[in-house]
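Something for you to look into today, if you have time. Could you write out one complete protein record for me, on any chain you like? The space below this message is yours for that.
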Amino acid sequence: MARILGINIPDEKVIEVGLTYVYGIGPTLSKKILNDCGIDLKKKSKELSLDELNKIKQYVEKNYKVEGDLKREVMMNIKRLKDIGCHRGHRHAKGLPVRGQTTRINSRTVRGNVRKTVGSGRKAAPGPK
């Protein structure tokens, strides 16, 4: 199993897809990295030589923030928003959508899949005795 930046890349995956297992590397960036390193996009990760793996590791470490560094930076950005007390910071703290989405109907995933339905407000009539 290939290991890049502390992440295990599955052997049967194409390296173009396997690189996306690393936090901060998506499909587009994966293609760019492989093209810059001169590695075939359709190679499986088990077919890569140690030289090619080292070339990928060094290129990514030198040019991009990934994994722990990127997560730490994102966390610090959110903490900064909370500390200065801006609207986005309050939304992050409450666990609500931050970018202006409506919360009246949608945003179930953010609110914890809360389904509150309201009836007519009337009590049911008592049944026959």
Notes: The longest helix spans residues 67-84. The beta strands are 2-4, 7-9.
